[in-house]
Design brief:
By secondary structure, this protein is of the alpha+beta class. The chain contains 18 helices and 19 strands. The structure holds one RNA strand of 76 nucleotides.
Length: about 500
RNA sequence: GUGCCCAUAGCUCAGCUGGUAGAGCAACGGACUCUUAAUCCGUGGGUCGCGGGUUCGACUCCCGCUGGGCACACCA
């Protein structure tokens, strides 16, 4: 099966972007060697003995003789020296040098290979391992196959691919060219694996709940709206799985968790992507104090499993996870900064006047809960670098959390703040149906006051509570932000393989 | 959504107060049997994001648009 000559010319032109001259600059020699590309489409690399690069390297460490290996990957560099040539092939975990020699391959085969193979191609090689004079582990190639042709030229080897737009739109190029990008997503995968291990080992059961929902509740955010044709109803992409997970606890699954995508129709910036990954987990018969302990253990495990240390640097801040996390009450922290007591802020007029004074934007028109939220961000969050639990939030801010056992103005809730960012949010769950209904009505009033994001009433959930939700504690952790922390990334787009971008126009 | 900044060869980038575009790498041809940012000789490659305007003349100045980045706003 030959690659027809037309491919080099016709296909790129149809895409409308590339001039014929540009195509020739890609692989200008292909039209001349067309007849020789007989392997490309049909040949399948004999994967039986094929290893990835890291396996080959391990193999050699165990047996430092001329081990026979077969390995496949992308040819990322090539140094032709006439009757011998060196190159490197790469996969996600590493690269290994290959050495081709005319004496070994035979003159005809060697010349053919030199003509067919280009940097960027996927090749499979068989041969024996040895070390070069400089000591580099290398495959002496006894046979090489072209497994897939790269018609386009790879990004530059030295500077890599820097243009962020291209890195996001063509992430595969980023992954080929930039080790840092590969490392980030490997850590992301390890972090999620570690998280699963942790929760599984604590008796949690992984579940899946609807992403298409007819009421978008469980968090405070604007939803994406879509339409189901057969049912002829509008539906929402979930903004949180919370209510469904609690219904499962009602059903007797006492420990459940879900790792999945949430969708919020809000702005995009360095810490917000419209779709993002959260884990939410719920445990019957625990309270928020238990969850704080659990969270510390979880964070430490994930750190050790991914980066192998409890001391990391994020955006220039040195973070220490080895000591017990600090705990500070919401209104104590606020008092430290402002000198004003809880009762002052719980008066809406006071809170508003104060917010206006300190320059909170639009403070005149915000609802009481929004005001408190802004004051929290302004005075407390901005100041917290080391892992800190802010605990005991005002009730108006937390429609799904249980009232504090010692203070009816507060709820049993904590947020874990690290380097000014909210990483986790948890509370003892409100399990009294009457009070939950009343809190939903309060949200409805907020909505009427112009807060479009106030939570919606979910009657199904209320009915479930009426059957009895055991005392339960629940928590949500933003995986993307956690991975940002683990990889010292300053933008959420660096830790999402394909971040949301505006489509290119033609 | 608002403000500021950015868009030049496949990639990374130069290009002064307006005079018709350059480098390195890559590509293509050639030389070279332990190279590794290989080296050496040679060649080609551009709708300067898109559309208007000013001008004898625009990559350059002005306006609009598109895409992106940062900050703010928004968003637990």
């Amino acid at each position: 099966m030959n690659i027809p000559v037309e491919i080099q010319v016709v296909i790129p032109q149809e895409k409308g972007k590339l001039s014929p001259n540009t195509i020739v600059s890609f692989r200008g020699h292909l039209d001349r060697i067309d007849q020789k590309l007989t392997l490309v489409a049909d040949e399948v690399f004999d994967g039986e003995k094929g290893d990835d690069v890291s396996t080959v390297k391990e193999k050699y460490d165990k047996d430092p003789n001329r081990e026979k290996v077969s390995v496949a990957g992308r040819l990322i560099s090539f140094r032709d020296q006439g009757k011998a040539a060196f190159g490197h092939i790469q996969d996600a975990d590493g690269k290994i040098q290959i050495y081709m020699k005319m004496d070994i391959l035979g003159e005809d085969r060697y010349k053919e290979i030199m003509e067919i193979i280009d940097v960027g191609d996927i090749v499979g090689v068989r041969g024996e391992l040895f070390r070069t004079m400089t000591g580099e582990l290398t495959v002496e190639v006894h046979d090489i196959e072209l497994l897939a042709k790269s018609l386009r030229v790879l990004p530059e080897k030295w500077h890599g691919l820097k243009d962020v737009e291209q890195r996001y739109r063509h992430r595969y190029l980023d992954l080929i060219a930039n080790k840092k990008a590969r490392d980030i997503f490997k850590i992301r995968s390890k972090a999620i694996k570690s998280l699963r291990e942790f929760l599984d080992s604590r008796g949690f059961m992984e579940v899946e709940t609807p992403i298409l929902q007819s009421v978008a509740s469980g968090a405070i955010a604007r939803p994406f709206i879509t339409h189901h044709n057969a049912l002829d109803i509008d539906m929402f992409l979930r903004i949180a799985p919370e209510l469904y997970l609690k219904m499962l606890v009602v059903g007797g699954f006492n420990r459940v968790y879900e790792i999945g995508r949430n969708f919020r129709n809000e702005g995009i910036d360095s810490t917000h992507n419209p779709e993002f990954t959260m884990v939410e987990f719920y445990a019957a018969y625990l309270d928020y104090n238990d969850l704080m302990e659990l969270t510390e253990e979880l964070m430490r495990k994930i750190l050790l499993d991914t980066v192998g240390t409890l001391n990391i640097t994020w955006e220039g801040q040195e973070l220490d996870f080895s000591k017990p996390f600090r705990r500070v009450r919401f209104f104590d922290a606020l008092k430290d900064k402002t000198g004003k007591e809880k009762d002052f802020f719980l008066n809406e007029d006071n809170a508003r006047r104060f917010a206006v004074e300190v320059g909170i934007p639009k403070a005149e028109s915000l609802t009481h809960s929004k005001l408190l939220d802004k004051l929290f961000e302004h005075f407390i969050e901005e100041d917290l670098i080391q892992p800190t639990f802010v605990i005991d939030f005002p009730k108006v801010l937390s429609p799904l959390a249980k009232t504090h056992r010692e203070d009816p103005d507060l709820v049993e809730r904590f947020e874990l703040i690290i380097n000014k960012q909210e990483i986790a949010n948890a509370y003892t769950e409100l399990n009294e149906p009457d009070e939950q209904r009343e809190r939903f009505f309060q949200q409805l009033r907020e909505r009427e006051l112009g807060d479009e994001e106030a939570m919606e009433i979910d009657e199904n959930f209320l009915m479930a509570l009426e059957y009895g939700l055991p005392p339960t504690a629940g928590e949500g952790i933003g995986i993307d932000r956690l991975v940002m922390m683990l990889t010292d990334s300053s933008s959420i787009r660096e830790v999402i393989l394909f971040p949301t971008l505006r489509p290119e126009k033609e």
